Amino acid sequence: MTAFAAVSPEETAFARQQISFYASTPSYRRVMELHGWGEAAERLSAHASKGEWAEMPALITDEMLAQFVAAADTPAELAAALKERYAGLADRITLYTPFTPGERDEFWREMVMAF
């Protein structure tokens, strides 16, 4: 499975933006409604239909982030949070984050060692 994950304010902002995009689409409406966020999904869809992409991340609350994003301060803590969150549900996890070979090598090394 692919998981949203964040260990920095920049990664949290990236996740917030991505969630705002996904939550604006009809195919994810039921997920938002399941959590009681149907009205937010409708507002996101309205913004998306007008191309108002910059306004959308502000509609993703911290509560929504906590539901959809595994967040931590360090790669080792992130690995622990992912294991706790997805134990028994996933046997492989890919992080929803850009990967460029040679960049963030220490982050990936710490993640692998923590698993």
Q: How much of the sequence is in beta strands? A: 5-15%
**Major sheet: size, sense and barrel closure?**
3 strands, parallel
**Tally of distinct domains:** 1
| Distance, first to last CA | 16 Å
Contiguous runs where pLDDT drops below 50 for at least 5 residues: none
Order of helices and strands: EHHHHEHEH
Task: Compute the number of helices.
Answer: 6
Name the helicity range: 40-55%
Mean pLDDT metric: 95
The largest beta-sheet arranges its strands as 2-1-3
Question: Could you tell me the radius of gyration in angstroms?
Answer: 15 Å
Shape: globular
Kindly state the number of beta strands: 3
Helix-strand category: mainly alpha
Features:
single chain, 115 residues, mainly alpha, three-stranded parallel sheet, 54% helix, globular
In short:
The longest helix is centred in the first third of the chain and has 15 residues, at 9-23. This protein has helices spanning 9-23, 29-34, 38-49, 62-68, 75-86, 105-114; strands spanning 2-6, 69-71, 94-95.
Question: In words, what does this structure look like?
Answer:
By secondary structure, the chain is mainly alpha-helical. The chain has one domain. The chain contains six helices and three strands, in the order βααααβαβα. The chain has helices spanning 9-23, 29-34, 38-49, 62-68, 75-86, 105-114, and strands spanning 2-6, 69-71, 94-95. Strands 2-1-3 form a three-stranded parallel beta sheet. The longest helix is centred in the first third of the chain and has 15 residues, at 9-23. The radius of gyration is 15 Å and the shape is globular. The mean pLDDT is 95.
